[in-house]
Amino acid sequence: MLIKREILERIKCGEIKLQFRRWRRRTIRPGGTLKTAVGMLQIGAITPTSADLVTDADARDAGFADRADFLRWLDMMKPGELDRIEVSYLGEDPRIALRMDTNFDNAALAQISHALDKIDSGAYPGWSRDVLALIAERPGERAEALAEAVAMEKAAFKPRVRLLKELGLTESLDTGYRLSPRGQAVFDRIAK
């Protein structure tokens, strides 16, 4: 579920408590969490609804001026089932602390190396280490150019880089990526 940065900031400060979505297939579940640019969100109840059941209060809780503003937004959305989603700010993204952790021993490095091997299994042996080297050489470069450099489609490349991000090794920038302090420390040790 994609949420604009401005809305995320308002959720973080408690000003917005609801979201509405139309979709063909839900991508979240009640009780789940969502990693976002401002931190972790808690997903509460997800209730199927219809536009005529949305009140002014619901619309305001979702960041709209009123029900009429909500209905104008809804008219611009693709068709699909409408859900009322309770959201709240849960806390900082745990990957932030992980990205900063450069104090790991050989056993932890072995675990990271094993995770990289798992990412590399299948069609792309050595991919993770090659991409760490590429990001180290070319921080901030567009994902499309990085994907091309490793002979991949951008659509296949980006989800694999997210796996490196989950390990705390990379950070997304407005354009492209960079190695995190942890990623640099790992790269320095495995590149030897």
Automatic annotation (TrEMBL):
SUPFAM superfamilies: Winged helix' DNA-binding domain. This is ASCH domain-containing protein.
